[in-house]
Amino acid sequence: MLNGRSWLGFMHPSEASNIHHRSYLIFSFSHRSHAPFGCPEKVILLQKLHLFLYPAMLLCTIPRVGYCCRIGKTVRFLLSFSSSCALRAVEFAEESNTHDFNYAKLQSRMQNYAISGHFRKALETLNSMRNVPGKPTVYDYNALMYCHLKSRNVLLEVLVEVYVGMKRFGPAPNASTFNTLLNGMLSLGNLKDAFFIAKEMCGSGFVPSFSLLSKMLKKSLGVGSLDDSLGIFDLMLRLEYFPTEPTLNLLISMLIKAGRIRVAYSAFSVLWGKGYFCSVYSYNLILWALCKSGQICTALALFCLMKKKGVIQNVCSYSALICGFGREGLEEDLLHCLDVMQSDGCKPNVRTYTIIIKFLCDAGRFEEALEYFGRMEREGCDPDLITYNVILRELCHQDRVGEISELIQGNNMLVGQLFRDMYSQGLKPDVYTYGSLIGGLCREGKITIALQLRDQMLGNGLTPSITIYNTLLGAMFKIDKI
DNA sequence: CTCTGGCATC
Known about the structure:
By secondary structure, the chain is mostly helical. Among the domains are: about 1-170, no CATH class; about 175-240, no CATH class. It is about 70% helix and about 0% strand. The protein is built from 27 helices and no strands. It has helices at about 5-10, 15-30, 40-60, 70-80, 85-90, 95-115, 120-130, 140-150, 155-170, 175-185, 190-205, 210-220, 225-240, 245-255, 260-275, 280-290, 295-310, 315-325, 330-345, 350-360, 365-380, 385-395, 405-410, 415-425, 430-445, 445-460, 465-480. Helix 22 packs parallel to helix 25. The longest helix is centred in the N-terminal third of the chain and has 22 residues, at about 40-60. The N and C termini lie far apart (about 95 Å). About 30% of the residues are buried. It binds one DNA strand through helix 14, helix 16, helix 18, helix 20 and helix 22. It comes from Quercus suber (Cork oak).
């Protein structure tokens, strides 16, 4: 391999000039954040001023025919250019050096304008580089964008305009152009433009990085724009990029919450088809959504497919199916599922049991529900507030509650015992608990006591829900007591 | 990222 010196030695002059320009650009880029005043370059310029200014003055004061053209040019140059005397003197150097110096000056001025938020002036300066052959380059455009994005008042629309101009009239945007725009738009939170640029980037034959697209997807999900997120997800898939699991789970959860279960399932399936290994957590999200929306058959198919593919089911997967069967009124399948679950070595937990108890209650099989209630306690699985609330609700639906007014005095046997158990486990009644009791009281027409419970809730720092007020109002209308 | 799931009125 050639070292730097021999490489330069073999280089064609045109390549050498390229290198020169490039290093110049790197230089100007690396100094873009520095103030232009008081830097070492200025000292050098001042020294040059003394060397060059004297002959320049001589030329101006003692005109000589042979120099007229040059002097005329110098004067025009002086008029059109900036205030630095040092730079005026450079006019005496050979033409290409003049261009270089001129160009470098324009570059730094353009960048200073852009950084300080004077976009229009920066753009004008960029356009004035056209006087220098072959300028401005794509690097100058990129610098303009980069510096403008660093300024305080960023106008993304004008950046898009500049980009569109580059595309139409040149210089053609390069990978840096797209990355600069993408990073800027992302950090400013403008996802729509960022997505547009990402698509443009792909269309121009460049590939946006995984991390940029992943960041974009996360941001998009963070602000809740589902359609944009799906677009980014789609783009990622086309590039064979797979989102990280938390991001995928967020996308799936949000789609499900928006009721777009099919779309969530498709996203999952596409990834699966591409060989992406989805964990049980992603898969359970879909499974639950299917089971809760009455699609137990699809859920079962997914469950079997995952089992076949070797995804380890967990208690949550089985609980989903149990819930799905319960919703369809398939109690026998529900109980069978519990057996399968246990034979698979999966131990039901408090949520599994609560689901079973709830659906047995709904099916009018209260005695069996109580058996499961006992069974969970025997297995060391403590019921929680939701389990108690489910049983309490059932009691309140039945006439078994008897006089709920007695409960308030602590005399009602079953409900009273339930409350004592709850309290002994450190569980305090919540809005649902009160909702069940108030509902039961209202059904019996005991609105006065129901209202007392409402007051008790408020006293315990609980805000009665809309549901509770609906219940109370409904009961009041019914007995015409309003 | 250490995640996913269970309860209420008319």
